[in-house]
Amino acid sequence: MALTRRQFLQAGAASSLTVALAPWMPTQAASAHAHGHSRRVSEIDWAKLGTPPEIKGHNIDLVVDETRVNYTGRDRRAITINGSLPAPTLRWQEGETVTIRVTNRLNVDTSIHWHGLILPFDMDGVPGVSFDGIKPGETFTYSFTLEQSGTYWYHSHSGMQEQQGMYGAIIIDPIEADPVAYDREQIVLLSDWTDEDPHRIIEKLKIKGHYYNRNEPTVLDFWRDVRELGFRGAMQKRQMWQQMRMSPTDLADITGYTYTFLTNGLHPDHNWTTLFKPGEKVRLRYINASAATYFDVRIPGLVMSVVQADGQNVQPVAVDEFRFGPGETYDVIVEPKQQAYTLFAQSIDRSGVSRGTLAVREGLTAPVPEMDKVEWLADKDMMGAMDHSAHAGHAGHGDHADHADHSAHPTDDAHAGHGGQAMQHDHPGHHAHHGHHGHHAMADDSLAKPSTRVHHARTAYGASVDMRVDTPRTNLDDPGMGLRNNGRRVLTYADLKTLDGPLDPRGPEREIVLHLTGNMHRYTWSIDGLEYGKSEPIHFAFGERIRVIMHNDTMMTHPMHLHGMWSELESPEGEFLVRKHTVSVQPAQRISFLVTADALGRWVWHCHIMYHMDTGMFREVVVS
Ligand SMILES: [Cu+2]
User: Fold this and answer.
1) CA of 388 relative to ligand 1 center, distance in Å
2) At residue 471, what are phi and psi to the nearest 5 degrees?
3) How far is the CA of 619 from the centre of ligand 1 (A)?
4) pLDDT value at position 244?
5) Contact between 300 and 366 (Cβ < 8 Å)
6) Ligand 1 centre distance from Cα of residue 295 (Å)
């Protein structure tokens, strides 16, 4: 059933408002001739900027369309839901059955995926897997019962539409009393906007993986190294990077060079502001709705008590800062006392910030911190857990020992010991060596603990893979590159403990290992060396409890999102920690979680960095 224009206007016009638009604000007043889209004009004006409209109720209508925005001085078209960016906040109650009619007014297919919600697979919204997608002009009706509560979000699962603005928050209030006490709440949805066509970004990345990396070492860095390492040490460091053809600051592949980082859809200069009264406990529901950006979040002057991760209540953890990736959410409680605080989030690669303000009244501001300095990836980000001292002076640079002269390795521990057992890095056109793995394996066949025996699939030795990690690190208490030893208490996965324990008390009946792989220079991403198009679905038997190990053979952090079922993260010792829908796996890290395959049907599992998903880090999962 297609919505009539009249019904649509009735649904939306209530909160219509006129505002003087600053250049960075989304503009709805698309003139009739601007892009030949005469069917759409200025009526869709109910995006109360910075605070998307909230929609309650069991029966809702969403319309996907293009809307003009201007974040940088140039008019661009965003893809929006009901004309707002972010999309309207959906506010529901646990236990309700909701019906959502989604009408597509684009000239290409669309879809909506309800990120983190447990629902029947044919309501999951992944075109080609859960359903056929929503064709132009069509309306698709979603209907499902809410089995959970907490902070979630929704977004397009078609093409690059999420990058183009199609995302919004979902809040599900619990039926029972909320274990979290607060006086006031606010959604803080962070995202990344680009004026460029996302498909063009992929083309550029395929030509040069470091296209957007403006942090490549400079001459100044070199002279600093000379001071610290001596001339020879600095030369060797330089040479090492060159031989590996890596950029030591490959922390994000798409950066602030193209991105504007938004807080609830507003440019940092617009300073999205939310108010409080002194003495109140304020709940901030942080959602990372970006297409490719890890954010490091803090509120200088305030301790954040983390009370929820991915919509699931956790034992409160007091921190100064947390990092989260695309798809993840954290709810925090703060107790502000001063007049104003800055809601600060810097991108992982320090190429830009998003910024908002928490204040007692409009117009107040607090200092905005400088971004932290860019740090180079440490050895553990490339080689995992190798004991460097044991290998100092050890010749052999993985697969390219023949390229390098290691006779004079610097003795500085931080730069020594690029042993072959630790990492294999294939040069393009250079044949991979087989049989390097397993040297550091621990023999443990029991399923009590996750296995640590490293085995790379045959498919991981090919042109799709430029690096393999043989001695991964399994510890979860590392906040990651750029956050180590920064003097602040930074959240790590080791700190998180879901309040009500695991959903399923059973231990794992079997274990599977998935390697996250890629080739930075070709810009392809994959699982076990197979891009989605070359892969077969992963099979789960209905009802089984399965351990999944994710082993990251790349130098980037990947937020891995399994649809339809929870990922219950465990410690390296096999103890339950936290229930998540999106699990970040750091470079050279190997982590594990348990899944109960209680949801029949076809699902997907993918990296939530759009560009990694789109170029192949994506698998179908069949539960039967
Ligand atoms: Cu990824």
Assistant:
1) 27
2) -125, 70
3) 13
4) 54
5) yes
6) 15
CB-based contact 426:465 (threshold 8 Å): yes
Beta bridge partners of 618: 606
* Residue 611, helix vs strand vs coil: helix
pLDDT at 50: 76
* Residue-level pLDDT at 248: 55
Mean pLDDT of the region 549-558: 95
CA of 521 to the centre of ligand 1 (A): 15
SS3 state at 549: strand
Q: Is the pLDDT of residue 443 over 70?
A: no
Give the span between the Cα atoms of 83 and 359, in whole angstroms.
28
The radius of gyration of the chain from alpha carbons, rounded to an integer in Å, stands at 24
What is the model's pLDDT at position 33?
A: 35
Could you give the angle at the alpha carbon of 411 between the alpha carbons of 408 and 412, nearest 5°?
135
List Cβ neighbours of 266 (8 Å cut-off, separation of 6 or more): 24, 25, 49, 50, 272, 356
Compute the average pLDDT of residues 230-249: 62
Plot region of 110 (φ>0 → left; ψ -120 to 50 → alpha; else → beta) = beta
pLDDT at position 179, please?
Answer: 94
Q: How far is the CA of 383 from the centre of ligand 1 (A)?
A: 18
Question: Which residue type occupies 374?
Answer: V
Query: How far is Cα 5 from Cα 40, in angstroms, rounded to an integer?
Result: 10
Is residue 107 pLDDT above 80, yes or no?
Answer: yes
Q: Are 330 and 322 in contact (CB under 8 A)?
A: yes
Whole-number Å distance, alpha carbon 183 to ligand 1 midpoint, is 37
3-state secondary structure (DSSP) of residue 238? helix
- Name the residue type at position 219: V
Find the mean pLDDT for residues 473-491.
Answer: 95
Cα 275 to middle of ligand 1, angstroms? 36
If one counts every other C-beta atom within 10 angstroms of the C-beta of residue 93, the result is 15
Asked if residue 561 has pLDDT above 80, the reply is yes
What token pair was written down for 34? Answer: 């601007």
CA proximity to 379, closest of 523, 512, 478, 280: 478
pLDDT of residue 241: 59
DSSP for 167-192, written as a single string:
EEEEEEE-SSPPSS--SEEEEEEEEE
CA of residue 549 to ligand 1 center, whole Å:
16
Average pLDDT over residues 451-462: 92
Can you give the pLDDT at residue 79?
Answer: 95
Cα 556 to ligand 1 centre (Å):
7
Residue 599, strand partner residues: none
Overall average pLDDT of the 481-490 stretch = 94
The Å distance, Cα 574 to ligand 1 centre, comes to 25
Distance between alpha carbon 126 and the CA centroid of its chain, in Å? 18
Instruction: Using the CB atoms, write b or e for 559-582: b if 16+ within 10 Å.
Output: bbbbbbbbbbbbbbebebbbbbbb
pLDDT at 191 over 60: yes
Q: Please tell me whether residue 493 adopts helix, strand or coil conformation.
A: helix
Q: Does position 549 have pLDDT exceeding 80, yes or no? A: yes
Share of the chain above pLDDT 70, in %: 76
What residue ranges in 221-320 does DSSP mark as E strands?
259-263, 272-275, 282-288, 295-298, 304-309, 312-319
Query: What is the rounded CA–CA span in Å between residue 624 and residue 617?
Result: 23
State in Å: Cα 559 to ligand 1 middle: 6
